[in-house]
Amino acid sequence: MDDCRRISSCFHLYSEAPTFNIGLSGLDGVTGLTGHDPTVSRLICTPIPAGECNPKNFKQQADDPSLYAGEDWGYLRTTAEELRQTVLQQKDQILNDQRTIRELTGKLSECLKDRIEKLEVERSAGPGHEADADRPWRMEDLEGELERKVELLEKERKALRLETEKHRQEIDQGLSKLHHRLSGLEEGVSGHPFPEGYRLSFPTRTNYMYAVVKHSIPKLRAFTLCLWLRPAEGGIGTPLSYAVAEQPNELVLLQGLHTPTELLVNDKVAQLPLNLSRGSWQHICVSWSQKGGAWQAYQGGKLRGEGHSLAAGHHIRPGGVLMLGQEQDSLGGGFDSSQALVGELSQVGLWDRVLSSSQVASLARCGKVTQGSVAPWTENGVEVFGGATKHPGEPCSKHSRSSQ
């Protein structure tokens, strides 16, 4: 009876095959991990009172699923589900979550090792131990497979990072080539000879279309700015702006959509009584002196207005960026499309003194004033960007020019 009770008290059962799916298949480029449906044996030990040992009941007891559908495999399934949720939550951060992957691997390995130890203890306690050798898949194999999958995930993550970096470098190289190509096209356009002079065209209101005067601007205690302008829209925008590191509005000529034409010196403003019409060429000149902040505004060679106290005592600082077609909110940048010029410019000139009214009138009649010029209108002195273009011909190309 003792032998029967000893043999009967620990009989061998077969549980349903567990399936592990921790959600790795939801990640792009990563193969999911699914168990091989092994038949895992376990031992269920129950006390048998003396005299009630019946070997015929062994098979019936072993076939009863209620004896093993207990908490152990439910615990494993719960653990696998929690791991799946954890991995899914890390989907958007997988590129930067190597530390989380290591923690996940450690926790999973620790859990599996604990379960394996318990199963091995239970398995070694009864005659079902011999049957384990015939199983096609063991828990040790499952743990090793999971660890290999995690290692594969880390390798693919590194490969993805390298591929992303490679794509970024290719994009940067492509942009660099495109920039050089555009620069070459712009230089090619600017390199064409214009025997009849040239004009700049700004066909649309953008925050990237502009031209730069390449002449270096010296320190100025006074200046005269003249240009030919043909606006294409109401509110001419910004024909010219000069910015230095300390002050983006060192010298600006602009007109807003619903505001009068303004002259800014060191961010101080004077409103100019100019009447600029669309579609026709107009000659504009403005002058300024630090003595009393005196200013004058001319249109068509005639004085339209004058004033004083505009940045009195200030001097125009050297070494800045003289730009055509855009207003600078920072040195060489910070453009706002609502302040962009739409139209054409030609024969932009800057002098280091206040020109007389007769000199301004001569310029309006297509004359020339060379004395004191710091930014003459030359073919190679202006560089265009962002789609601004140079076209042959200018307002005075059909007039003979006299020097003064």
From TrEMBL:
Organism superkingdom: Eukaryota
GO molecular function: metal ion binding
Residue runs in coiled coils: 139-172
Alphabetic keyword roster: Calcium, Coiled coil, Disulfide bond, Glycoprotein, Metal-binding
One Pfam assignment: Pentaxin
Cofactor: Ca(2+)
Domain (Pentraxin (PTX)) ranges: 196-396
Disulfide bonds: C226-C285
Disordered: annotated span: 385-404
PANTHER family membership: NEURONAL PENTRAXIN RECEPTOR, PENTRAXIN
Name of this chain's protein: Neuronal pentraxin-2-like
